[in-house]
Amino acid sequence: MPEYSVPRRVAAEALGTAFLVATVVGSGIMAETLTPDKAVALLGNTLPTGAILVVLITILAPISGAHFNPAVTLVFTVLRQLPMSLAGLYIVAQTLGGIAGTVTAHAMFGQSFVQASTHIRTGGAQWFSEGVATFGLVAVILAGVRFERKAVPWLVGLYITAAYWFTASTSFANPAVAVARSLSNTFSGIRPADLPGFIVAELAGALVAAGTMSWLLSPASTVAHTERAAP
Amino acid sequence: MPEYSVPRRVAAEALGTAFLVATVVGSGIMAETLTPDKAVALLGNTLPTGAILVVLITILAPISGAHFNPAVTLVFTVLRQLPMSLAGLYIVAQTLGGIAGTVTAHAMFGQSFVQASTHIRTGGAQWFSEGVATFGLVAVILAGVRFERKAVPWLVGLYITAAYWFTASTSFANPAVAVARSLSNTFSGIRPADLPGFIVAELAGALVAAGTMSWLLSPASTVAHTERAAP
Amino acid sequence: MPEYSVPRRVAAEALGTAFLVATVVGSGIMAETLTPDKAVALLGNTLPTGAILVVLITILAPISGAHFNPAVTLVFTVLRQLPMSLAGLYIVAQTLGGIAGTVTAHAMFGQSFVQASTHIRTGGAQWFSEGVATFGLVAVILAGVRFERKAVPWLVGLYITAAYWFTASTSFANPAVAVARSLSNTFSGIRPADLPGFIVAELAGALVAAGTMSWLLSPASTVAHTERAAP
Amino acid sequence: MPEYSVPRRVAAEALGTAFLVATVVGSGIMAETLTPDKAVALLGNTLPTGAILVVLITILAPISGAHFNPAVTLVFTVLRQLPMSLAGLYIVAQTLGGIAGTVTAHAMFGQSFVQASTHIRTGGAQWFSEGVATFGLVAVILAGVRFERKAVPWLVGLYITAAYWFTASTSFANPAVAVARSLSNTFSGIRPADLPGFIVAELAGALVAAGTMSWLLSPASTVAHTERAAP
């Protein structure tokens, strides 16, 4: 597989996160405009988000790895699959790209570009939800990369489709997306003051998943091999 | 394909069943909270369940086979594809994992961890539904493994998506999940007293499917081969 | 690929059509019971039907070809890809299997096993809809088999998902399924008196598609080859 | 891969665009007839459109490339992957096919064949939406063709599924489809007077995407190769 230059990799992270956030925020605005039924609105928010994740990861993973998520970038850095210097650039690109996504969504719907969300999302149940959501996301990515790399775009899209519904927080599971959503006072927003709790829970869930999967994914036969190889 | 150790296999069954039940129960709570329309709620329960099944089977099948279901484990044991001792461990792991999934869902939604369901699901039509649902599930798995092993995660996810709607019982089709759902007095619960009827019907459907598919999946050419091989 | 015996092929056609009809009829009953919104009900009828088609075609095509549809069987017979004698058995199996599917759905929902539908579906617009729907179905199958055989289950499932909505008749596109649905006085039923119009339109659409695709799918390079081969 | 003759390629473009528009317009009519909830209606319009795109691109791409869209044809012409003469024929076929699709949908629903839409879609936010929508569509196609050609039908179907919701214009992203939709005074229509704004925005978005992706998709290793090859 060809290597892509750092500017292109960083651009891919920014562009992907921008489209992801534009989809989350934009479909949320569309949905709450069209229906009073909050479950129908969440369906109208879920399907586009799952769908665009499959698309964005498929087309940008060959360039940048398609993290679009500082928690994922952190895990790959901890697992020494991404150099620290590049990780920093990725996280900046994801954050700025995410904000650009919110602004783009607002512009498409004729709203003021930047807003402060008043959507309260805090408390232990919400934080536990974000921890579980990000644990699952990272577990899916690590096992997916190991066993079925070509399916990873689908696995992530389907996992988030499920996690929108099975967590009480609708599964942000992404610090850059959380920051970007704090700038939208619409369906998918989050109050800026509630960001720290979400981000800490997400990073904790990601690191627990990295540890758990490191154990779970070690095959017995490797051990056996090593043992057999010994004299 | 590498072999995984027994503790990892058992952990994969527990983790997978936990995430499956957390999705079923959690999305049920989310759905009934958001809408008065019961069909919209069932959509909000169906899509996450189908989606997470594709994900969980893809990422855990290489480790444990991804049964997450005592009826499936029973069938593979009867077909001598799983040793009896391991089957026992699997079923314990599935049951405990399932209960952990219910507790996790309740914790995410700020509810008391364990509840006794009052959702009545009993009678001949319900039992027949569970029998048909599990017959279909096992038939899909056995034929899928035979003809298109890589598609099995999709086949199971799509089958359950359909079975939520075409059976009167919304297709539990899984004794461990049924037990776990009896501990949640929410959308997806089942009264503990109604468990025996469901479990018997599920196991019966599974065994009928194992017999039916053993016949249906034997190709004529194997017979021909044997006959030609005879002197 | 191994060959399957005639009894197994016929059984596969019956079993597949039974599950298909049980899904169509059963999900229709579930949907209309749960919601007063007819579009939500149609979503709850569409998703299971599309999903089960992907599953059934994947697992039964290696045995029988997975027609489940006399119009499809007719096309393959006309194109000399299925002997006439087998075609007759297929159509009988599809029809009886479909009726068994209706009875199964009714039994699962505690309804009387056989009912006469009073759902009126007649007139030029409905017939034209059925013609277009079956034209499209056969075109999709013939081109899919030619270009991307492994994708055919998905193509048919997705096509029917679309056709439920873009035709005024919700796209029966299948004479055996139409007969089976005439025995259910529920959401997905059709008045027995309206069957002939539907069946004629479906067969006409199928044959037009067979002709059109025979032309469209002939590559220019074959012609060129033949011409080059001439002295 | 065999080559197809020009008449077949042009017929494939016309047939594909006709089915695409019949799906968009037909499912819109079905949806708005069945429900007063506009988000449910949009779901009933989105799912069929996404599904039929996967199907049509899979079965017709081997014949014509499956553009169904003058903006896409323009991009491939600018990138010198399609001769100008053929591009002209494609655009005529797409436009006439699209109109035939509208007429077919109207006939299936018993409506007058051609109507003038009164659905107002104009202004900066709408135009910006169309620009973003078409930028994304072309970016997805160009990167998909580069990295994962077999997945392109899915990528386009999923992208449009998302774009129906995340843009304020429900993402026409296609001048031929826009023209065809101007002839339907139903859910998915557009006032003829609003066509120029949409078409200009779509073509602008497409060209910006072509430029952006030309840069983004150039791998560093190609450059390195060239440099290493130099003496």
Keywords:
homotetramer; about 230 residues; Glycerol uptake facilitator protein; 9 helices; membrane (chains A, B, C, D)
What separation lies between the terminal Cα atoms of chain A? 38 Å
Q: What is the count of DSSP helices of chain A, taking H or I runs of 4+ residues? A: 9
| Low-confidence runs of chain A | 223-231
The oligomeric status of these chains comes to homotetramer
Largest sheet of chain A: none
Structural domains of chain A: how many: 1
Detailed description of the structure:
The structure is a homotetramer of 231-residue chains. Chain A is mostly helical and 231 residues long. The first copy, chain A, has one domain (6-215): Up-down Bundle (Glycerol uptake facilitator protein). Chain A is built from nine helices and no strands. In chain A, helix 2 runs antiparallel to helix 6. Chain A is globular. The N and C termini of chain A lie far apart (38 Å). In chain A, 63% of the residues are buried. At the A-B interface, helix 2, helix 5, helix 6 and helix 9 of A face helix 1, helix 2 and helix 4 of B. Chains A, B, C, D: It is a multi-pass membrane protein. Chains A, B, C, D: Its main location: membrane. Chains A, B, C, D: Keywords: Membrane, Transmembrane, Transmembrane helix, Transport. Chains A, B, C, D: It comes from Mesorhizobium opportunistum. Chains A, B, C, D: It is found in: Membrane.
